[in-house]
Amino acid sequence: MRITMQIWKFAATVLLLMATVAQAQLSAGKDYQLITPPQPVPPGKTIEVLEFFWYGCPHCSQLQPSLHEWLKKKPADVAFRSQPAAFSDDWTQLARTFYAIETIGALEKLHPEVFAAIHKTKKLDPKGLIKDQKPLFAWVGAQGQDAKKFTDAYNSFSVVSKTNRTVDTTAAYGVSGTPSIAIDGRYLIAPHMVPTKSGAVDYERFFRNVD
Fold first, then answer.
1. What is the pTM of this model?
2. 170, 86 in Cβ contact below 8 A?
3. What is the per-residue pLDDT across 104-130, written as a single tens digit (0 to 9) for each?
């Protein structure tokens, strides 16, 4: 029994050392970028992880399945949230969509559906929605949500204000493309940093690096 316990302790030590070595091998500029200056995070011992995304980004859509799997087993001290990114006025309409969905309490239901409506079923056209949001309002109603409630939220001062701050937030974190993940206001990592030999994204390795 004593020998078995010693073996388990030895194995645990080896695994810890392997994890430490793997972490030490990550290098700034290659596997991640330093956020300069570091951005403020909520007080406490939790680690804030932000996903910078844009609904119109196909790579963001492709990330979602792997992201959802990671969320199921993320460390208990990690506080995750999605953050719309915007580099220009053309991006702000879909950021506004996210905040309106969040305001009506339908984020869990509609967040993945917006990705699907843009990239799979093609029911929503990001370029068309810049000029005319009526198709968006109608689509929300077709998903079983209160279209008027969503429209009111979309046009509310609160949602417009959050959307206006999105461009500044994106710049402050040094985000140059989507998707990107910011960790504890200090590190920025993106899937394109871990390509496979064929040029695809190694999502498993990506989330190991996130950890």
1. 0.85
2. yes
3. 999 999 999 999 999 999 999 999 999
